């Protein structure tokens, strides 16, 4: 699982991107079917599908965004995705992603003369809406910018984001309100947050934020619950999951390594051996020998 927009999925089919403050904030993509993956959002994401099908899985819920629909995903959310197309359109998927951080939203509110509206317990992680003619025309207006994206000045990118938010405000005030809502600052269950995110590329600051605590309070409360540090707990939980995958699936050691959140094969093999007494390949080999005996 990658962190976006900091680590956007690389693909030779990507058509272009526009940047602001050095970060990709608008992505125009054109894919065929069969691409799957996952990501953890550090900023709000607005995904607009012009044609095709973009599937998002969040927990036990599945959302399908089809032609002329858009989806809002709140920041600090981890999801799985699958990119496909309609059978009668050569499986083409044409979509645009907008990464909207709090700074952009705040700039828009000041520029538009709007005041933030905070709705208690009204954060919806994922919402799907139809797009209207104005937003459809706006998407078309972006296409020329992608042809020479490196030459587009950041000031113009900022203006285009402001334009998008004006269209959103005029056509769907509920969506705008969702962008204003912070994640609940109530002291969430540390156990639940850790189980949901231990394989995601989240930092301690991310976990503290999700729990509604300061970093110091998060570390203190975590130590009281688990009698260990968050980093050690995450590593051991990932190793337990890796052991499970090695025993119960045919995934390669490399795939197990990366799917459980480790970023280096050598490091993964080293810590796996320290925990279980055998490197991953040997552990699987010995397990197969016992099963065949």
UniProtKB/TrEMBL annotation:
PROSITE patterns referenced in this protein's UniProt entry, alphabetically: HTH_ARAC_FAMILY_1 (PS00041), HTH_ARAC_FAMILY_2 (PS01124)
InterPro entries in alphabetical order: ExsA-like_N, Homeodomain-like_sf, HTH-like, HTH_AraC, HTH_AraC-typ_CS, Tscrpt_reg_AraC-type_HTH
Entry-linked Gene3D superfamilies: Homeodomain-like
Keyword presence, Transcription regulation: yes
Coiled coil: none
Stretches assigned to the HTH araC/xylS-type domain: 188-286
UniProt entry keywords in alphabetical sequence: DNA-binding, Transcription, Transcription regulation
Protein name as catalogued: HTH araC/xylS-type domain-containing protein
Organism field: Paenibacillus cineris
């Amino acid at each position: 699982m990658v962190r976006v927009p900091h680590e956007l999925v690389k693909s030779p089919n990507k058509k272009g991107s526009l940047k602001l403050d050095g970060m990709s904030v608008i992505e125009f993509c054109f894919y065929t079917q069969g691409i799957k993956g996952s990501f953890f959002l550090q900023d709000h994401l607005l995904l607009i599908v012009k044609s095709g099908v973009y599937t998002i899985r969040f927990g036990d819920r599945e959302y399908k965004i089809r032609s002329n629909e858009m989806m809002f995903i709140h920041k600090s959310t981890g999801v799985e995705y699958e990119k496909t197309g309609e059978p009668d359109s050569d499986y083409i998927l044409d979509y645009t992603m907008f990464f909207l951080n709090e700074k952009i939203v705040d700039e828009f509110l000041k520029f538009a003369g709007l005041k933030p509206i905070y709705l208690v317990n009204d954060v919806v992680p994922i919402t799907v809406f139809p797009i209207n003619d104005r937003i459809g025309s706006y998407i078309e207006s972006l296409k020329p910018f992608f042809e020479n994206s490196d030459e587009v000045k950041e000031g113009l990118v900022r203006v285009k984001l402001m334009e998008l938010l004006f269209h959103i405000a005029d056509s769907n005030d509920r969506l705008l309100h969702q962008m204003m809502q912070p994640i609940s600052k109530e002291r969430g269950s540390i156990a639940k947050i850790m189980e949901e995110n231990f394989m995601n590329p989240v930092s301690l600051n991310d976990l503290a934020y999700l729990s509604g605590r300061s970093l110091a309070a998060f570390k203190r409360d975590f130590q009281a619950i688990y009698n260990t540090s968050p980093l050690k707990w995450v590593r051991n939980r990932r190793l337990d999951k890796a052991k499970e995958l090695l025993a119960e699936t045919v995934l390669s050691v490399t795939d197990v390594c990366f799917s459980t959140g480790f970023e280096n094969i050598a490091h993964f093999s080293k810590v796996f051996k320290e925990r279980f007494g055998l490197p991953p390949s040997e552990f699987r080999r010995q397990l197969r020998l016992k099963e065949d005996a």
